[in-house]
Sequence to fold (166 residues):
Amino acid sequence: MDAQGPALPTRYTEKANTTFTTVVDAENRIGGALGCKAIPNAVFVDEQGTVRYIKRGGFDVHKPEHLALAESWATTPSLDELSTLSAAEAERVIKHPEALEHFRRGLTLYQDGKVDEAMAAWREGVAIEPDNFNIRKQIWAIENPDKFYDDKVDYAWQREQMEKGA
Fold:
């Protein structure tokens, strides 16, 4: 999810040489439907359209276990040991849909070039749902693009911001 468009996050998947399909959800439709409040996520869907696996936030193809899982799913879509989502995985974790509405309003404003109004809408969403990383990330990316779009994403800085509630 990136309000700044798909080109910016796509270069990271290209740099990682991923061999599986990666989706950039610029409108956060998937995030809203599946309850994802952080990025990156992994969602594996079988041929019948059933979600078979979700890793909300923190999916990292540099971690051997995540890469192996993605490669296994891409070559042989079978996760028998994961065929039933745990209660935590199945639960929608967006507890405040009104926060998502502020997010969407901010996105529309941002796309219309109304950055200050978008920031205000996103701040309203964060006030409702403080642990929503996706909303916070849009604010941070505009205020601190160097923490997101240089050669390396500054994950330590992002964790620090979440801990501070910034």
About this structure: The CA atoms of residues 99 and 129 lie 6 Å apart. The chain has eight helices and two strands. Strands lie at 42-45, 51-55. The first strand starts at residue 42 and ends at 45.
